[in-house]
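Notebook, student rotation project (T.W.).
Task set for the rotation: take a protein with a known small-molecule partner, predict the structure of the complex, and write up what can be learned from the model alone. Partner molecule chosen: magnesium ion. Sequence and SMILES entered below by T.W., checked by me.
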Amino acid sequence: MTWQPFYVGDGTPRDVDLGEPPPWRSFPRQALYKEFQPPPGLVKAVNAALVLRRPLLVTGAAGSGKSTVIEQVAAELKLGDVLRWHITSRSTLKEALYRYDALGRIHAQRLGGPGGSDDIAPFLQLGPLGTALLPVEHPRALLIDEIDKSDLDLPSDLLDVLERGTFEIPELSRFDTEAVIHVREWGGDERSPARSPIKGGFVQCDSFPFIVMTSNGERDFPAAFLRRCIRFTMPKPTVDELRRVVEAHLQLGQGTKRSQEVDATIQDFAERLTAGESLAIDQLLNAVHLLTGSGTLTGTEKQEVMDLVLRELSRA
Ligand SMILES: Nc1ncnc2c1ncn2[C@@H]1O[C@H](COP(=O)(O)OP(=O)(O)O)[C@@H](O)[C@H]1O
Ligand SMILES: [Mg+2]
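Predicted structure of the complex:
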């Protein structure tokens, strides 16, 4: 029997049932706070950041769990939905604070749009950082993901806002320093978004958000930036830690037991990591899912599929 369960390559249309997806690939995406197994030292670093009201800078290889840390902290401490800011080379501090749709407003004024010509609120939205800095009873959780991909000046600009905990929306402060405008927050339900009153165009944070910044270590940061963060480097996982991660993810499934084969795969994965190969934990999860699924994978075919999903990341 060959492992061609769905696509055969003969061009004949057929109805297929792909079965259940891996639990971590079901949509809408579930937060992985129950499955996450903090590596040694991480819990202390998170608590230091919480107590000192400093951002946590987490560095580590791709797929080492950096972006997942905050999900667990936010869930345990009931910080609400994680606000996410994914950084690219084009990211600007301003878009993370707020967005103003000037063109949309001009159009609306011409057409006699919502709320009359002076209603600016529909054209403003706070960004993830702007929302995290709103005065609130409970601090929010903010993920600033892949900050090492940013433009060179962004970390210093960001630091400045985080030190002061305040920012201005000139489009509002110019307009009226007494007016209270209800501005849309970031995230949440798009159909009925939360709105926050902003007076005179200034936002002043009153309880510092829990911030995780992640970095693949692709660049160095200025000392002035580093000294204001709590820094943590994700260690390479040991065999035991990998077993725990695999078990945590599989428990979501049908109570699958770890077979000898799965154990051997985990062992081999750990050895490759120790030898300096670049591999992500997702890859191990993929491999285990294929091994524990209803699978008809056998012999050389199994080896070929395993090689495919466990291929090193530094090779395309
Ligand atoms: N310590 C861990 N415990 C449980 N799952 C983990 C752990 N580390 C990584 N994973 C899993 O690996 C995947 C990749 O993690 P992610 O946080 O996206 O990595 P990174 O941001 O470092 O690239 C996620 O699906 C996550 O569930
Ligand atoms: Mg990530």
